[in-house]
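Appendix B, record 7
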Amino acid sequence: MTAFERRQRILRILQQQPGVRVAELAKTLDVTEATVRTDLSRLEAEEKVRRVRGGAVLTELLMNGGRASTAPEERAAKWIGRWAADRVEDGDTILLDSSALAFSLTPFLTERRRLTVVTNSLGAAQALTAGSTHTVILLGGVMRSDGYATTGLLGAPMLRDLHFRLAFLSGAGFTADIGLMDDDLQEAQLRRLMLELADSVVALVDASRLGRKGLTQVAAVERIHHLFTDTGASAEQLEMLRHLPLQLTVCGENTVTNITSHRAQDIYKIGFANLSEEIPFAVDVRRGLERAAKQRRNVDLVIADNRLSSERALEIADNFVTKGVQVAIEYQIDARIGTTIMNKYQRARIPVIAVDIPMVGATYFGVDNFYSGHLAGVALGRWIERNWQGKVDALLILEEPRAGALPEARIEGQVAGLQEVLGEGFAAQRCVLNSGNTSAASEVVVAQALADLAGWQRIAVVCFNDDAALGALRAARSQGREQDLAIVGQGADRLVRHELRQPGARIIGSTAFMPERYGNLLIDLALRILRGESVPPAVYMEHVFIDAHNVEHFYPLPEDRARTP
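Structure tokens (predicted):
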């Protein structure tokens, strides 16, 4: 097949099932996983698919039955499904009712592993079973007239013996005095039973149902822990929801706002433009911020996804100004547009915290770049002394030119650390490659470099971040040359920690940036700025090099395994 024919085949496969993994596509199409990732990147650039961890879903997937549509309610369902699914962790036990809004979570749950899902929705059961590690239990009952679900209490005996961390429920309407309601008495009975068995109840209510009453109550407001709605909600509706004893998330196409209720004190609105929701490190930063904002109880957190795009970062800055954020936490990759972004915020008198990529005029927060790189370089040099008798045939340098001079110091630090241990002439052959800040891009360029270095057996690899390190590892595996490489990363994110626990891992370690700790420190820094307190121009994280010998100390199992895909 030509590349065009192969990509059309991928789209046809995705039309037949809600999501598919890279490994399955590679086997079906008889090509390498690197080729599939390149195809998916092209389709994503054409806005035909959306990449998820390990695979992809169609961008225009209708959340009730698999048809494509652009109806406002269905767009809202996708937004709600994407952010509600983020509450689910690997290994969770969850309940999904038969609503279209609960079904909207299913494409995003393909990113999780080892879920136990109980549902009365045939569509959700089918979507979550195909090619997954999930255990899916379909509740028995009378087939609903539309053929999409079972209903009634015939499956109640099975439910009563089970326990769930999360139940995702919807209904015909929601009001502040009654709570979640439904028009179908049998559906309402089953949903009431579901919420009794769950630690946490998540209500999915699009804006069209806010203020609507149904025939019977499903869940009182006091029983609901978290409510997801969309940006179609009016200011009056949001003000009503703000004062209810539950956590509120308002989902939009480009931003999501987390609102904590029960507050009489001053409320601060903080914007966070994340690097990319496809990068584990950035996801951990965002989750930490959400936890920290919830704990403070006086912070509305507006979240957006820069998607590694300069154009999108500029659009989000304009959006944050329009939304009236009081502090912007900016995490974006392109140092060249920092001045333009800062100009937008400075004209609106909005202070900025720049995460990991500095911007002139912003308070810097994050990595001490040269030091973090130096830790990794020294560790790699010592590994080479022990295992390769201090000899290196080639050095691959996986950089990210867009990030600018300061993050470039991570690379400089790694090379300096290697030279410190091995001496100036440790590698005659050096290849500088653009990692693209993603594992997929790194895999492609490293695969080509390894082909050019055929026969070379001692190849050291230093990386801008852990995604570049993982891409290098995949490229080596695909060519059967894993033992030829010794790789160090930057970040020590979840996927790299998983690799470090494998026997004979060729990613020998990574300098930890502790993204899970960013949230508390960033929120504290933002609140200090809002209170008019003096803050330093730069706040650095403390770093430690994580390897197979100390990973359990800093990230002990089973807590870390539960977070690792």
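Remarks on this record: The two ends are 32 Å apart (CA to CA). The chain has four domains: 3-57, 70-252, 271-367+517-534, 369-512+545-563.
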